[in-house]
From TrEMBL:
Protein source organism: Brevibacterium jeotgali
Example of a GO MF term: oxidoreductase activity
Record keywords, A-Z: Oxidoreductase
PANTHER family: PHOSPHATIDYLINOSITOL-GLYCAN BIOSYNTHESIS CLASS F PROTEIN (PTHR43157:SF31), PHOSPHATIDYLINOSITOL-GLYCAN BIOSYNTHESIS CLASS F PROTEIN-RELATED (PTHR43157)
Pfam families: adh_short (PF00106)
Protein name, entry field: Short-chain dehydrogenase
Keyword Chaperone: no
Family listed: Belongs to the short-chain dehydrogenases/reductases (SDR) family.
Database matches in InterPro entries: NAD(P)-bd_dom_sf, SDR_fam
Length: 277
């Protein structure tokens, strides 16, 4: 049976690079992207199905999840790769801080909506995290959206830490039912990422140091490694990996089971208050 792979952030950067690699393999590829033109172009190039969604609008996430679940009774891999670093704090139309919503709440909701086809396929969830979780993350569960202590770097670090906490939570809650999950750092990739953040990260990504960064093709190869890898062989469920494909240390909060549990519960509560769960 041809495996079904759902890949978000597939219109550009490492997502588009991974899509091109996967198009050479026997997979049923479903791309999700924010830009209609870019997503359509990558889909046409790779022969993939595609959906357009802006993760700053949870209605978009809900809409595509409903369609994907209707089209695919079984999903083998969901790669939560969409995200970004934004100035702010900015509040979305859903009432959440933008970095927190785009990088964490939206993939958290999408994964919940696709749990049935993922469990049907004994599937895997691959979360693109970042070394930024360790460098910039300063998690306060009383300020989970990083509103009162906002800086673009801190909000991004906390959102990437959220991806890792979510990975561990998925393993703990659904591992016994056959679902696997992994988080990884793709490298500091030379893409348009952080182009509007106005931060030191922007200067790193867009400035003279850009020539020293990992290419989109290399980052896409790392993403593809986890998408195509077999849990228990190429990677271990519930772990965080470096771009060298090794289990790596991350923010200390990720090793506290109480933080993992409470972060999940708070995320669910925020979405439930708005009627999404």
């Amino acid at each position: 049976m041809t495996p079904t792979v759902v890949l978000t952030g597939g219109s550009d950067g490492i997502g588009a690079a991974a899509a091109r690699i996967l198009s050479t393999r026997a997979v049923d590829l479903v791309l999700v992207g924010r830009s209609a033109d870019k997503t359509r172009a990558v889909a046409e190039e790779t022969g993939a199905d595609f959906h357009i969604a802006d993760f700053a609008r949870l209605a978009d996430v809900d809409r595509i999840a409903t369609q994907i679940a209707a089209d695919h009774g079984r999903i083998d891999v969901l790669a939560n790769n969409a995200g970004g670093l934004f100035p702010g704090p900015r509040i979305t139309e859903d009432g959440f801080e933008k970095t927190f919503q785009v990088d964490h709440l939206a993939p958290f909701l999408l994964t919940h909506r696709l749990l049935d086809p993922l469990l049907e396929g004994g599937g895997a969830v691959v979360n693109t995290a970042s070394i930024g979780a360790r460098i910039f993350g300063r998690l306060d569960l009383e300020d989970i959206q990083t509103l009162t202590t906002f800086s673009a770097n801190r909000a991004y670090g906390n959102a990437k830490l959220a991806n890792i906490l979510f990975t561990k939570g998925l393993h703990e809650r659904f591992g016994a039912q056959g679902l696997s999950s992994v988080a990884f750092h793709p490298g500091v990739v030379a893409t348009s990422f952080a182009s509007d953040s106005g931060t030191v990260m922007n200067r790193l990504y867009q400035g003279a140091a850009k020539r020293l960064l990992t290419s989109s093709q290399q980052g896409g190869g790392t993403l593809t490694h986890f998408i195509s890898g077999t849990p228990g062989r190429e990677w271990t469920s519930g772990e965080y990996y470096s771009d060298r494909l090794k289990v790596a240390r991350t923010n200390s909060a990720a090793y506290d089971p109480e933080v993992v549990r409470r972060h999940w519960e708070l995320s669910e509560e925020l979405l439930r208050r708005r009627g999404w769960l």
